[in-house]
Amino acid sequence: MSYILSIEFLCLFLIITSGLYIAWNACHQLSWLGAAQTDIGMPINEPVVPWRASWQRNLTLLIQITCVVLLSRLIVYLVAYLAFIAMKDNGGGFSDLFKHIWWRWDSFHYMNIADNGYAAEGKDRYLLVFYPLYPALIAVMKGFVADTFYAGVTVSLINLVLSCFFLFKLVLNEFEDEAIAWRAIKYLLLFPFSFFTAIVYTESTFLLMSIACFYYMRQGYWWQAGCFGLLAALTRNHGVLLLAPMVFEMLRQHQQQWPSDWPQRIKFIAPKLLSLALIPTGILLYLVLNKWVTGDWFRFLDYQKENWHNGFGYFAQNISGIFERIQGTNYKMVAGTWWPTFIGFFLAIALIVTSIRKVPSAYVIYSFCYLLISYSPTWLLSGPRYLMGLFPLFIFLALWASKHKSLESLLDISLGVFLALFTVLFFHSVVY
Fold first, then answer.
1. Residue 77: φ, ψ to 5°
2. Half-sphere exposure of 333 (CA within 13 A, CB side)
3. pTM metric for this prediction
4. Is 41 helix (H, G, I), strand (E, B) or coil?
5. Structural domain spans, the chain
6. Of 116, 124, 316, 362, which is the most exposed, with the fewest CB atoms less than 10 Å away?
7. CA–CA separation, 85 and 355 (whole Å)
């Protein structure tokens, strides 16, 4: 048990030291530790200037990104199809096997909700733990694509295209470098678990809402940021974490603009607080859904424990437990779930820490909070998939690759190989 305690201590040490470094850097940017400093070269008392391209340029960019995204997902689909027929000795056409390959795990639940809504009784009552926005979008898409599964895939692909579009514009606003913006998209699409963005899962929807929230937040468009933050919180519980960077950005952008007299100060602050309140409103609406369906505001917590054997735990202990499971004999689970979950935590920490001085603090604060919450579930089957929703990682990778161009090809190939590997492990039912 000594090595378990050592891992817990290491995780705790990394989080505490990283947190202190992040807080120190953020305080400097808020002028709390002396002279005012800029946030990666941008004035602290002015919102970021948006990329106001003409509609023709935006349309051209959207078409380019659509082609790149659809081509990349087609390659993923083809790799899965060829690997499936080779390994399963199961012949059939691409369209015949598509559902058989990709219709797994949570896909069943989202489609059930889209078709039938939430239930108060029976086995389907446990589906209340799934947040409502994504199945609602599938239900709407069914008006255009009758088959629920393909409606879900369509929603995911559309949201993936829009996620990449907003990511490009966000990165271009931050760094004024199209090469870095395209790299960020590349690493989103090459991420080893990015196949989840093109099937009936919430990843691409959550990415869209969180990236769009940051896009408007960094420009000081608080109402738009709050609305997308609300939608993110209606997609996954991680969405409420957007509150932390938005509070920081409000303080940073307006720290020298607070009126001196109270009537003007209230008039200045009130609309910003209301836009900020939109984000937790997403969670409140989810609790209202719980109350409406079951009569209990927090019934989802009971269902998490009863059916999903999950709760909120101590992240360091959870990581130690994952390391214990790595010693098990279920080698497919070890390769597809436990090792990626364990290694993913430390790689994410490394990317966050090494990017602290390269990116605005809002990205680092959000990444730090997101990582802690993602590793808090006591039965952590989906840790690597949760990392797929942490979009700043793709920006951090793009910046790293821009600085180490001699290693960029090696990074790209490695990510591509792991994407193919985990795609295969997914239809072997060991990636969740």
1. -60, -45
2. 11
3. 0.91
4. coil
5. 2-427
6. 116
7. 42
